[in-house]
Amino acid sequence: MASNVLYTLKGDQDALLECLQAKLPGIISAVGGQWRVVWGPVIWKARPDDADTGPDNTWFIAHSPSVTFDDGSTREAYVVAVAGTNANSIYGWYENLAVGRVVDFSAWVRGRFTQPPVPVNRGDIVPTGTYVAYGTAAAAHTLLTEPSPPGSASEGLKLHEYLNNILASESTRVVFTGHSLGGTLSPTIALALAESGALKGEGLVYTTGGSSPGNRSFVNLFTQTFPTSTSTYPESGYAVWNRNIINSRDIIPQAWSTKRILSPAQNLNNIPSIYGIPTIPFIEFVMSWLKANVNRSHIVYAPLPSHILLTGKPEETPKKVAEFLGVALGNHNTFYNNVFDVQLPDLECKELKKKTEEEILLEYPVIGDIEWGKEHPVEVEAAVTALRASGVLDDNEE
């Protein structure tokens, strides 16, 4: 969660980085133990001089020489923390909505991340291929290859270089974690590092509220590399490794599968009625728009292994889009804060401004898509009409 501490703030890249460099060490040390930041933090913005948006990506690595894990073992540990999309971030939108094009994951990994991923021609997609969304792969490339900046730990080193050079024993654990879009990107970079041979020690993934990075072959490769664990503390609801911990009423983990029969618990078709019936027609319309974007990919997205925390529907079914979004935001943020009993600090930094409520809504996959669609209904209607005419909007949920 520490990588998300800037989620309510906006400013240019230098100001955001200066704030995080000053505040992060104290936040990490407050966790307890012997944790310290050993790589980063890094702030990356597609438009670094834009002071009216937050970071496009935020990430860092923390280290402790001695951590007692849930299985009772005490080990050296590294944590690779990745933040979710920030509000009003055009690059974040690019990552979220670039699901209509895909990248051959195995071919990209063979290139050792030195070149940006290239989308596969739709006519070259094969059923046995291992594919991830182009937006996800492009963001993962940034995370893996952007060097740690001046003033941050391990200045000049790229993330994959740092992890490849650590003196890890067999007992060392490297944990990849993130929430929201960070819950999509962290398992993607973990798998890329493992497949390339750059991951030392034992890799573990611990994510919350992430959407699906790729297709079933990608999921199969992930589960082979990072086998799921059973809960060591079943009463806690979150003591599991290598699963996406999700709230059953969180709409973001419902993306991006469109086939209910293949993924009944997590697919876009669940979203309109997730908080009750009757549904809101505009929400159904936006889901048609999102499914159209997904179907342009010519793959079927599949969720990573999940640990679903069941929660009930709200006492009153939302009747307006704004009400729906308010319930959705609470189920995506407040729910997890309560489960883990953590609260992000309210940071104040020179030259940074607070985001508006609308900008915070725009921050998240799916939630932001609905908010954007509410503000641009003509564009959404035109896009859906065009995609229907082209035949890519398949309404067959099976």
Q: What attributes does this structure have?
A:
single chain, about 400 residues, alpha/beta, 7-stranded mixed β-sheet, two-stranded antiparallel ribbon, about 35% helix
What would you note in describing this structure?
The protein is α/β, with parallel strands linked by helices and 398 residues long. The chain is built from 12 helices and 11 strands. The protein has helices spanning 13-29, 90-97, 105-110, 134-145, 159-165, 182-196, 216-225, 281-295, 321-340, 357-362, 367-375, 377-390, and strands at residues 9-10, 36-44, 57-68, 74-82, 102-104, 131-133, 173-179, 202-208, 243-247, 306-309, 353-354. The strands form 3 sheets. A 7-stranded mixed β-sheet has the order 2-3-4-7-8-9-10, with helices on both faces. Strands 1-11 form a two-stranded antiparallel sheet. Strands 5-6 form a two-stranded antiparallel ribbon. β9 (243-247), α8 (281-295) and β10 form a beta-alpha-beta unit. α4 (134-145) packs across α6 (182-196), α8 packs across α12 and α9 runs antiparallel to α11. It is globular. It starts with 8 loop residues before the first strand and ends in an 8-residue tail after the last helix.
